[in-house]
Here is the input.
Amino acid sequence: MAERPPSGEEAPGAAAADAPVRGLASLAREAPRKLMHMALASVAILLAWMLPPLAGRVFFLAAALIALGVDAARLRWPALGRAFRGVLEPVLRPAEDRRLTGGTMLALGFAITVLIFPRAIAVAGLGYAAYADAAGALVGRAWGAHRFASGKSVEGALAFGSVAFLVGWATPALGPGGAAIVAALLALLESAPLRFDDNLLVPIAGAALAWIVSALA
Here is the structure.
C-alpha cells in the first residue's frame, strides 16, 4: 500500500531538519513488508504466466481462500493472533491486528485479476501491484515532501508511474504509448483519496486499464 503521512506531524518549519531522518526511519520500517510483497508477487507472476489458464485460476482462488481463512482464524482467536504477530511482526502494521492483512488483500486482488482478465493483461495487473506500488510506497516514505489531498506524495506517485510504465511496456498487448497512458491513469487513481486498499485496487484497476487501452489501440 502506498504511503500515508505520519500522524501528529510537526509544523513544516520545525520539522524540516528532522524530515530526512524520519523519512529514512519510515523507509526502514516499510522496506521488509514491501520486499516480502514483491517476492511473493514475483512468484505469483511466474505462476500466472506459466500455469495453464484453468490451473492458474484454481491456484489463485485457493490461495486467496486460504489467506482469508488464516486471517479469519487469527482475528477470531486472540492466542492465534498473538502467535501470528509474533512470527510476522516485521511485516505487519498495528492496524492489521483488527483487520485483514495487506497480504490477504493482495491475494484477493490477484485472484480477482486472474479470474477476470486474459493471461497477459492479468500478469500486467500483478506487475503493477508487485513493483509500481512498492516503488511508490518506498520512495514516498523516504523522500515524499509534497502531498496530495489523500496524504500520498507527489514523489511516490512519480515513482509509481515510472515503474508502472516499465511494467506496461513489457506487456505484449501494450506499446510504449499505451504503457504511458495506463501508467499515468493508474498513478492518478492510486493517489486519489479513495477508501480502497491499494493491494486490492492496483492489480484489478491496472489490469482493467491495460485491457481497455489495448482494446482501443
User: Anything to note?
Assistant: DSSP finds nine helices and no strands in the chain. The CA atoms of residues 36 and 91 lie 8 Å apart. Residues 22-216 form one domain. The chain has a mean pLDDT of 83.
